[in-house]
Amino acid sequence: MSVSGFAVDLGGTKTAAARIEHGKVSARLQKATDAGADMDVQVEIIADLLTELGYRRGAPLGVAVTGRVDRQGDWHAINTGTLRGISGAPLGAALRRQFGDRAHCANDAAAAALAEARLGAGRGAYNFAYLTVSTGVGGGLVLGGRLLDSATGLAGHVGFAGSRLGDQRCGSGRLGTVESVAGGRAIAAMAGLPDARSVFEHGGFEDIIDRSAAAIAALIGDLTAILGLDRVAIGGSIGLAPGYRERIMRHLEEEPALFHPHVVAAELGQDSGLIGAMLIAHEASD
User: Fold this and answer.
1) Same domain, 72 and 130
2) Residue 273 forms part of a structural domain
3) Which of 29, 62, 171, 256 could form a disulfide with 7 if both were Cys (CB 3.0 to 4.6 A apart)?
């Protein structure tokens, strides 16, 4: 796919910027995200990174951010402990003022879903879901070739769906969600360790990791029942950890065959959000 321009992926821990040529990242810079910064400071940081990459105002620019982005382009941090300075910030309008009318923003998992659907693990699928299992659980849905969106920006936040294995609250405020069982914060809390990486490295917490995978398998079954998925790609630091997808598959085998979409590993890695943001910018500008 021949799309070129610039993209930014602003996450809870790092902010990456890239120059994209013909659908591939040709140059990339990143720095730690300032979790306490407000929107204006975040836009200044984005501008500094893009300047280093040779960006000029008016060039196509896609910005993917963690959190919820509504149809007006307003940015809402779902977990305020991750981005403390963001609450209903008019990011879309700020980007257009700073970078021109070809600048657009979207949720990072939605952007990654579109990239995987067009250029990665979802190519050829009709109804496709991308699930990212990392600090939290997110995702994006591409149905009939179209990225599902909503006025509130909530579409695709599949980690906030209920789970029969859940009994805690997640960052959304909902009780008993998939994220409250399967996400990295939940895994670390259940193990009494500082982060999910420590849980995987420490050993001895197989039951906690397996419970996470079981919750994701149940989510896949539910989404397949509702949306008729034919393929699901698993991404994220936990989702791509050795053996995790195989755990999901073992639990999914307990479901009737009708609820077994093809479950594969995401292919585009850390570039998926960047490439997807660029695709969204191009499609929004057409």
Assistant:
1) no
2) no
3) 62
For 38, the 3-state DSSP assignment is: coil
Compute and round to an integer the Cα radius of gyration of the chain: 18
| Cα→Cα distances 234→116, 124, 140, 143, 208, Å | 10, 16, 11, 17, 19
Long-range pairs of 72-75 with CB within 8 A, sequence gap ≥ 24: 73/104, 73/105, 75/39, 75/105
Tens digit of pLDDT for each residue in 250-285? 999 999 999 999 999 999 999 999 999 999 999 887
Q: Which domain holds residue 191?
A: 123-267
Q: Which residue has the tokens 């989404």?
A: 223
Are 178 and 248 in a shared domain? yes
Whether 285 is covered by a domain: the verdict is no
Give per-residue pLDDT as tens, 178-187.
999 999 999 9
Q: Pairing between strand 103-107 and 75-76?
A: unpaired
CB distance 246 to 210 below 8 Å? no
How do the residues of the chain divide into helix, strand and coil, expressed in percent and rounded to 5?
40, 25, 40
Distance CA 236, CA 272 (A): 11
Q: Identify the helix (H) or strand (E) that includes residue 43.
A: helix 39-52
